[in-house]
Amino acid sequence: MKAPATLVLFLAGIVAAPCGLVAGTALADLQIGIDARASFSAPAPSAPEALTSLEAVQYLPPNNNEPGFEWPSQRKSGPGGFYIHIGAAQTFLKVNDGSAEGLVEGTGKCRLEARTLYETQSAPVFEGDQIIAVLKNPLPGCAFTRGYVNMPEISSTSAGGLWQLPVNVRAFLDTLAFSEGTNAHYDYIYSYVTFKSYADHPRKVVCSGGLCSSAAGRYQFLTKTWDGLAKDLALTDFTPPSQEKATLELIRRQGAYAAVEKSSDYKNFSKAVGKLNTIWASLPGSPYGQPTHTLKRLWTAYQAALASYR
Question: How far apart are CA 282 and CA 19, in angstroms?
């Protein structure tokens, strides 16, 4: 279906922002994938420019009969029903949401082994770039069972989400997040402002470089776009799993899911980007005059992301 001219993710094309409108070397150096550890000093947003700033616009494609991913009808669970699964590197359960460095082992932090499933007493809670978990069984030598774990260091949780998708789709979403400048961060608002609560879209308008935007999350949803998707999909929060479901719905409505599903083939990858570049203006071929990445650069990013899942 041909997209109307209003189809645009009109997010910051003037300054470095997580809305994917910077194709410079700083972005190119960021690590991609769900295990990304991007760490940098985020620039503070400039003061609102009430008389000159444009308001970001994002089009919500209408629902249609294009096929998409069929999410599992029931949550996959570990032996006890709830769990977190650690990624490829060991990490820590911490008493606070800060760095594990400097915390005393046993009382301030406790080691979590790589590629290990830990049962939790209840569903893990998402907060900023952390997951709060209450372990069902105490860790050896650990004085506490409730703590924080860095979100990028967890490969999956019983809440579902990205890990449930085929690897080609996961790699494509990682590439989209790379293009948008958010990488593994689900807690970004436009121009690198962050939020902690995933109870709802943060609904915060930030002005920077002549553009005002409420774009938030890994895939930079505007408030109006999110509200439409959340209503259609019966999403009750803005957690990472909900963000994944809403993003896949946008891809489906654009008739791009079939190409994304087979995106390990360059022709399909290129086709998917071509269908989606009127939604995400950071993608090559976007007609809205904002800086974009080259298809070659995104293909390289995609291949790196795909390799991380194999």
Answer: 8
List 66, 113, 180, 249, catalytic entry? 180
Using 70 as the pLDDT threshold, list the residues of the chain that sit under it: 1-52, 74-80, 288-290
The torsion angles phi and psi of 164, rounded to 5 degrees, stand at -80, -15
Q: Could you tell me if residue 269 is inside a domain?
A: yes
Same domain, yes or no: 67 and 88: no
Model-level pTM? 0.82
Expressed in percent and rounded to 5, the helix, strand and coil fractions of the chain are 25, 15, 55
In the numeric block, which tokens belong to residue 139?
A: 């860790």
- pLDDT value, residue 52: 64
User: Kindly report the CA angle at 194 between 239 and 289, in degrees rounded to 5?
Assistant: 95
Give the residue numbers spanning the domain of 93. 83-157
Q: What is the pLDDT of residue 82?
A: 95
Residues 87 and 48 in one domain: no
pLDDT at residue number 38:
37
Residues 285, 175 within the same domain? yes
63 shares its domain with 134: no
Task: Indicate whether 245 and 293 sit together in one domain.
Answer: yes
Whether residue 62 is found in the same domain as residue 201: yes
Cβ atoms of 183 and 32 within 8 Å: the answer is yes
Q: Is 180 a catalytic residue?
A: yes
Residue 29 is predicted with a pLDDT of: 36
Q: How far apart are CA 129 and CA 217, in angstroms?
A: 11
Reported as a single tens digit per residue, the pLDDT across 11-68 is: 333 333 454 433 333 333 334 343 433 333 344 444 444 546 777 777 789 999 999 9
Q: What is the CATH number of the domain that holds 245?
A: 1.10.530.10
